[in-house]
Every structure is written in C-alpha cells, then in structure tokens.
Amino acid sequence: MTEVTTLPFTSDWVSPPGDTIADILEEKDWTQVEFAERLQNTTKFVSQLINGKAPITEDTAVRLARVLGSTEKFWLNREADYRAQLAQIEEKTRLESWVHWLEQLPVKELMNQGQITKRRLDSKNKPSVVKDMLSFFGVSSPEGWSTFYVGKEVAYRRTKEEQSDLGAITSWLRIGELEAEKRDCPHYHKGTFQKAVKEMRRFTMLPPAEFLPKIQQLCLESGVVFVLVPSIPRAHVSGVARWLNPHKALIQLSLYGKSNDRFWFTFFHEVAHILLHGKDAIFLDEWSKGVDVPSLQEEEANQWAKEFLIPCKYNSELAPLRSKEKVKVFADRLGIHPGIVVGRLQHDRIIDHTWMNELKETVEPAG
C-alpha cells in the first residue's frame, strides 16, 4: 500500500489575548472603565484590546503585567501566538483559493519523483499540496510563479511547438535549479570549459557509469553544472542550456531516448549553446524528428555538435559503412563510440533506423 500524508487538524477559530484579559477582569469584578483608568489608557483602546483589534505592544505588555499580573513575556507570547494563529487561518483561506493552480502542474509526477510530499489529491489535502508547490518553486503565490517562471517564456528557445505545457517545463527546469544550488563551483571560464570539452570527447568510449561522473566534475571545474533530471510527461524536453547567473551555467539532460548516441549529441548540442550563444536565452531542446524551421542558434548548435563528434572531412567515408565491423574500425580511428557513428548513419539516412542498434549503449544515471 502506498504511504500518503494527510493534513493535521487545525481549528478555524482563535482566542485573542483579550479573552484572557476579559476573564481576569471578570474575576476581579472590574469594569472596562476602571481597567482603563488603572492601565492609563482610553476605554476605546481597552475595548479594541479585548476584541483583538489592538495589538499588545511591548509598552502595553509592561502595563498589563503591572495591572493584571504575570509577566511581560507572557503577554507578548500570548499576542504572538494569536497573530500566528490568525496568519495560519488566513494562509489556509489563501491556499484553498489557489487549488485550481494545481491543474497546471504535474503534481503526481513530482510526488513520484520525491520532489514534494506524496498525498492524496482530495479536497482536504489540496491546500497543503499548493503549499508544497509554492515551496518547490520558491515563490509566495501562483502569481509569483506566473511572473517569475511563466514570464520567462519569452526567453525560452524551443525546438518544437509541441513544447507547450509550461507547468511541466517549469517544473523540470526547477528541479535542475534545485540540483544546481547544491553544487558550488568557480566562476565560469570559457577557456577552461573549452579544454574540458575536448577531453570529454574521449569519454564517449567509456561506459556511462564511468563517463557521467567524469563529465560532471570537468564541467563543475569550469563553472558549468551538469545534471541529469528524469523527464516529465508533456514537457517534451531532452535538454536545456541556460545561465543561472552571469557566472554559472547549467546543462540539464532528461535522458530522453536513453541511447548513448542521443545522449552525446544532445550534451554537445547544449555545450555549443553555452560556448556560442548569449546568457539571456533558455535553450529548450527536444530530440527532434524534424523541425520545420529551426532557429539560427539551433542550426549552429546542431552543426557544432555534429562537426565536433564526426568532423566534416570524414563525411565521404560514411556511406560505405555498411557493416558493424567497418563501423567499429571507423569509430576507433576517430576515437568515439561506435554507437555515435550508427546514430549519425541513421540520421543521415545512410542506413535504416533499425540497423546496428546493438552497437549503441543505454545511458542511465548511476544509482
């Protein structure tokens, strides 16, 4: 049975400090007029104090302690507890009014990935789920999410129009942000990153369990965070390149497709965005089966990754690669994994997409 969390009971009423004051006045058989005289304040103020409309300040707490007994701390704590209870009730009301926001978000998927607490999505729990989602995004309201995350839509550079579910996209991006926040790195240095990228090309020959931590470390030393975040349905995103601030870049992959040819092309495609393009746009990329009108920046990133893995001077040697043995020899000469060569042959339609797939490897995050 799946374990779920339910909301604790909270009352819809609160007791103001004035209730305690009224009880003491009744015990002492004092009128509000007499109490006001002893307190050296107006009857209007006393009435407001008893009704919870006037807060207990430090000065009022001193006077209450002298006139009614107890301590200043007692009266200040009584006031603080009352205001906190009021705030909780107001918060509950706000959260209840925002439950419709959940319809825009991949709540169940985020629960399954452990990003927010798993709960039943019933009317009782939905306000708490709203609170979890606000904390997840680091915003104070759905309007804050709309302004900060959806408002960035103008900065998104998408490779497919079907990437239209902003709730899924922003959730996937946010997971990457949270992962990146955990990792300290020096300021980005282009020269260091370029040198690291050249070294990373050799890692294509290694199994995923070996190359993933290596490229993460080299990226980090260059001021670039590289994270793997499981895909979220309807986000349709395989990778993203973006700048978290002027000194820290992020490459985030979803392992969409999972084969190593797709992984390496997508990774170096995002590398190209970091090296070639500005720091303002957020490049959202899908493993494309054909984009009608790719942007100039996407064309540049595609060409850079393509050339980086298999330089154009070898193009004439691709067509004759009709056997696994020839592919392996060619890949070994270029110092790349044969699965990458197979992916290129399939992409260029030199061979059918069902051919030689056994030369590819599956890429899965460690653990």
What brief labels describe this structure?
367 residues, 5-stranded mixed beta sheet, 7% strand
Largest sheet: 5 strands, mixed
| Quaternary structure type | single chain
Low-confidence stretches: 1-11
The beta-strand count equals: 5
Q: How are the strands of the biggest sheet laid out side by side?
A: 1-5-3-4-2
Discrete helix count: 15
Q: Assign a percent range to the helix content.
A: 40-55%
Structural class: alpha/beta
- Roughly what fraction of the amino acids lie in strands? 5-15%
Mean of all residue-level pLDDT scores: 89
Describe the structure.
The chain has 367 residues and is an alpha/beta fold. The chain has 3 domains: 17-96, Orthogonal Bundle (434 Repressor (Amino-terminal Domain)); 98-148, no CATH class; 154-310, no CATH class. Helix content is 50%, strand content 7%. The protein has a 5-stranded mixed β-sheet with strand order 1-5-3-4-2. Strand 3 (239-245) and strand 4 (248-253) form a beta hairpin. The radius of gyration is 31 Å and the shape is elongated. The model is unreliable at 1-11 (pLDDT under 50).
